[in-house]
Amino acid sequence: MPTSRHSETASAIADLELVDHHCHGVSSAPLSHEDFASLLTEGGREMCSAIDPVASPLGLAIRSLCAPLLDVDPHTPITEYLRRRSLLGEPAVARRMLAGAGLSDLLIDTGHLSGEVLTPDGMKKVGDFETHEIVRVEAVAEEVFASVGGEGFIDEFARRLASRAGCAVGLKSIIAYRAGLDIDPDRPSVAAVSAALAGWSPGRRLEDVVLLRHCLWVAVEVAEDLGIPLQLHSGFGDRDLELWRADPTRFTPWLRRIPSSVNICLLHCWPYHRQAAYLAATYPNVYFDTGEVNTHAALGYDRILAEALEVAPFEKVLYSSDAFGLPELYYIGSMRFRSALSSLLEDWQRRGFCSPSDAAEIATAIGRSNAEKLYRLGR
Length: 379
Description:
By secondary structure, the protein is an alpha/beta fold.
């Protein structure tokens, strides 16, 4: 019967161990209501003074999906949920949420507020999974400038990024935040980089577009030498971002200039997930995910994932949560991804477009094997 085949697909996806190819550490310190609420929004603490971020699609997902893992009834008031959460403590909450997420590997970006969350080694102690580092390009550049200044920056940055990347599985750039993706695609000259370095003051973050372009091109060289992918933020993000400049198709001229041997993975992408799918369907070295909106847009994620898979080759799509701070984000990301993918593949089977074996292959590819190949996670 069709129903049994479709249920078989849902069961297989529920049991699939996922590779979360882009995420962050979780908090180890106790969280106040305001701390917790601020991690539910890309608006930060300023949003908490205007609204309650719990009154959101993500807040509903926490109260409905996460509450049972803490032995609380679904839809219970958030005050009761937080009271139970506080009683259990952050380590216990993290263990329950991450165990429930069903993950085999976490690829952790260590360049964002690293002092506030667990390191990859700390995360490894939380559950039964492997952890791997993703090195953030701009964070390394800021560390190098703070230690050597402008005079020795060019050589030292290239050396240190290669050294850090040698112990990691990938690199990541947030040039979308700092300059947008509609940049001059050519590599800047040494003279232009030197002039820009002269204007960079100690203690300031990296924002100069010439330096950002330089660092990105160095990252391309390092990625090519080591055979590792380069992740690029696109689409959805916090208020530091001008969203219209984070459309990944604005990066097309740059994609045409880099070596085709360097694999690029576009992160998050919403509301430009269709544009990312187009790039993945057109450029052999472009991959993408729809991470973060499987939590923040939890209630609409079925539609988003279906749109992302309209034209994308199944071998070019990956799973991520982009979880940061709250272990609940790991769990919600996993549960919403599994549910949305199951519904979509079951619908395709009902309509005669794929078989149960096709569905199993597609789910395994997106959920884990694409990431295993791209990041060379050999067992």
